[in-house]
Amino acid sequence: MNDESDFEAWHDWALDTQAIRAGHARTAEQEHGEPIFPTSSFVYGSAAEAARKFGGEEAGNIYSRFTNPTVRTFEKRLAAMEGGERCVATSSGMAAIMSTVLGLLEAGDEIVASRSLFGSTVSLFDKYFAKFGIVTHYVELSNLEAWEAAMTPRTKLLFAETPSNPLSEVVDIPALAEIAHRHDALLAIDNCFLTPALQRPLALGADLVIHSATKYLDGQGRALGGAVVGRDKELEALFGVVRTCGPCMSPFNAWVFLKGLETLSLRMRAHCDNALALARFLDAHPAVTKVHYSGLETHPQHRLAADQQRGFGGVLGFEVEGGRAAAWSVIDATRILSITGNLGDVKSTIGHPATTTHGRLSDEQKLAAGIAEGLVRVSVGLEDIEDIKGDLARGLDALMS
Ligand SMILES: *Cc1c(COP(=O)(O)O)cnc(C)c1O
């Protein structure tokens, strides 16, 4: 049997078993697959029952902004996979980050964050949270002294993505957690690039794991969603935000992500294999001046990445000589890879960070962040690796002639 009383058992299962089995409480219909509950509200047997449920005296479904069985199944499954007590699902990755800050910080509190963050996360911190008196200080991801130096008595949250996008820089999560906890702050890791299949930040000392389910958790570019995983205490505050402010996940999307989780490990292993093969191919190509992928032995943080991760992920960056024109010509010569901002898809995607994801940065900021004009980012998908190599070789070979 697999019902909610098996909660403790889920936490002892291996990740691949959790990904397929955890979280589903079978209904009276005895369904084998996880059902979708496309309903906005739930009914009560009596006025008294409604009163008890609204008053919180009795558990049960009320309204899908905060209690939907399909969403709950996704939350329980991801909580088990990340090794957290609780998960709250959200409408997008950005909603997950927004709910975390709204739930846990107040005006006057400060965030210390890695400089290498997803662009919208920086906008959220600087354009919106700053408006309400929450200030963010940015530091170089891998420089632990810089994190330490940015801490103040008002620091409540440390926020990082590791490995970074698109340069594949890594931070030592246990060391960062130690800094956070010594200052009574929380450490949140955006685990979008590796997923629990390749990295479990809570086991390494982080307090919160943040996901854009839009990426690898779905894995097939079909739906937007997000999630936060951690302890009951912090997640209860976050749940309050989602319940009241409404950035909730739709039951249909939750079902899509549940199906995505079932094949997550297999897909991540295949993404890693293809990315490493492509990194080696690019590293050996005479038109490529640099490859950024922590799976290469020459990457400055290869050892740290190998110790803290179970794989190096599916995203890499590479540089060509000739700046923007050369990078664009390699991108435009592809016929299989999609020129798009999305990543974590079975379809390989390619883009030019300096004019897209990092286009809002000034020239000095780009230089500081290592975003060169000749830099190209690839999210390596699951097409045949020889076809992916050939698609990039077309533009790279042309640069040599
Ligand atoms: C895409 C992404 C987000 C935002 O997620 P959405 O689902 O697009 O809102 C946050 N962090 C990282 C690292 C991302 O790649």
Automatic annotation (TrEMBL):
Homotetramer. This is O-succinylhomoserine sulfhydrylase. It catalyses: O-succinyl-L-homoserine + hydrogen sulfide = L-homocysteine + succinate. Its EC number is 2.5.1.-. One of its GO terms (biological process) is 'de novo' L-methionine biosynthetic process. It comes from Onishia taeanensis. PROSITE patterns: CYS_MET_METAB_PP. The modification N6-(pyridoxal phosphate)lysine is found at K215. GO terms for molecular function: carbon-sulfur lyase activity; pyridoxal phosphate binding; transferase activity, transferring alkyl or aryl (other than methyl) groups. Pathway: Amino-acid biosynthesis; L-methionine biosynthesis via de novo pathway; L-homocysteine from O-succinyl-L-homoserine: step 1/1.
